């Protein structure tokens, strides 16, 4: 559902002067926590020229946010949510000035996420990177004119808040949903006007808002004294998973936990499930039931079937594992299931927990076992 | 467990009782699993301490157009484990599978990467072993020194080499509750005694169109193709299978009824039997033995097929003949 950008300190848009702040987020190559690097950005990063032209034509007053993906070079811009406070203060100073209305801008959690990272998990999420490094910077805009970067911005806090119901975790869970952290989450821009920070996700997939509280005391800037809070959205997702295709050859186990789906997997894993089930059904003329009892959540990550943000499932985080079961919990049922699954292409299958067969496609590498 | 009906003898062509197949290991069981120093599965034990031999009998029902396969499995007295699993990989669709009483016998769909069949002696019970609980022994495992028959298939597909894995009962404990760690251990196809047998096969490739003989008229060399042997150099395990296909892909018109085959000078045309259209057109199985044309070492197969090349008029007389000579070697053992 599209989310309207709003100021947290919301006051109505007002006329006047104004400083517009361009807040940009420049994405950097993903970095590990122990080796955080922020490649240098071009010193004259501009907002999206299309939007800049619109703002200039409209004599727009307010802040503008830009998202610069240094990997692709793409620039995305939008009005800053902090502008309303600044506009209000400006209106008090010069109440006769008029400010054009804010251009309609909206975002949705699919197309306008500032970034997507993969859930943490170490060896249980091989190939994943739960960290995202980026920089913030602010430009001062007045009546559509860019007055340049502000060199002394104080970030008083960056807070991430998990969004309820996201990441497939619907319904009630015990305890607060884990959320990611920025490091640093407070400080002052560097000599170039950048504020570098590193976001690290948790093991739980889902969407989060990120509020950046900032202010400036740059006496050289015409925007001195202004500040505010900008809210962004980002997500923790293991992407590329889709719901296992229903089939006459197997039955999904009932979902008893508070998740809208636990049967998501990679498309290639879906194919293996279909082949396994069809072969198994044909082998026994459909006289022996086959159940699929677990795969992954829609965006992977920790599958907390206890609704408590913790295991029992250590794996099932990347759409690579599938649990099967049959009519009874013994090897006379499990071994043929495992045989069919392995021959269908699963890398390995083994009885787990005394009540099902766990089939792997990914080679995990648990360092505690090697 | 389902058994095959006794066929009407008149319509059956007994091709051979074929002995061979799996690694016949007369000595104490030889580990095939290889290096297991990397295994970290708690209390894991290998399942390759069996000494199997597998005898197959292949017959052809000319009325039904079906091939019948019957297997007898033995476990040498030197084995250290009972045989409880027989896994076969082959790609020919199969109508029926049967196994001895108390064995779980089933086919693996030909749409999966490793189609075939499996036979397992499985128990619904558990036993306590170091590390937890494991499956109890199956009700009719093949103990060392024992032989068990009753394994078999009925299929429209002719025989071909089939990889076979025979495993022993090892009572490896199941993983404890809530464990989803990535333990390392050999695959079932590695942790087994591996060998070959004959099983329903859909031949899918042409190895050679045979030799260009001096008597072949132009373009007549393509009437017959060979699907599992080259003109020279192929080594076949006994019993030896020869699979051929009439080739009309270029518009040629081979006359199937004109097919003749000589193995080491002996007419073996009648040994060839048809298969489904999506595989080999004719397949013969030759066994070694006194009075049999097949011999250990070098063998020569000569085939003759009359036909009409697409570039010839139908009134061409005499019709061109494709003569091919295949020289192959036969060995015994796995």
Written description of the protein model:
The complex is a heterodimer of chains A (370) and B (334). In chain A, helix 3 (267-283) crosses helix 4. Chain A has four helices and 21 strands. Chain A has helices spanning 49-57, 83-93, 267-283, 331-344, and strands spanning 3-4, 20-27, 64-69, 75-79, 106-107, 116-117, 131-142, 145-149, 153-162, 181-183, 187-188, 194-200, 206-216, 227-236, 242-243, 251-252, 264-265, 291-294, 321-325, 348-352, 356-360. Chain A is α+β, with helices and mostly antiparallel strands and 370 residues long. In chain A, strands 2, 3, 4, 7, 8, 10 and 12 form a seven-stranded mixed sheet that branches. By secondary structure, chain B is mostly beta strands. Residues 1-29 of chain B have low confidence and may be disordered.
Query: Per the principal axes of the C-alpha atoms, what is the gross shape of chain A?
Result: elongated
Assign the structural class of chain B, choosing from mainly alpha, mainly beta, alpha/beta, alpha+beta, or little secondary structure: mainly beta
Rg on CA atoms of chain A, Å: 25 Å
Measured as a percent range, the helix fraction of chain B is under 10%
What can be said about the biggest beta sheet of chain A?
Answer: 7 strands, mixed
Low-confidence stretches of chain A: 1-38, 83-110
Mean pLDDT across the residues of chain A is: 77
Distance between the termini of chain A: 46 Å
Fraction in beta strands of chain A: 25-35%
Overall SS class of chain A: alpha+beta
Oligomer: heterodimer
Number of helices of chain A: 4
Helix content, binned percent of chain A: 10-25%
Q: H/E element string of chain B?
A: EEEEEEEEEEEEEEEEEEEEEE
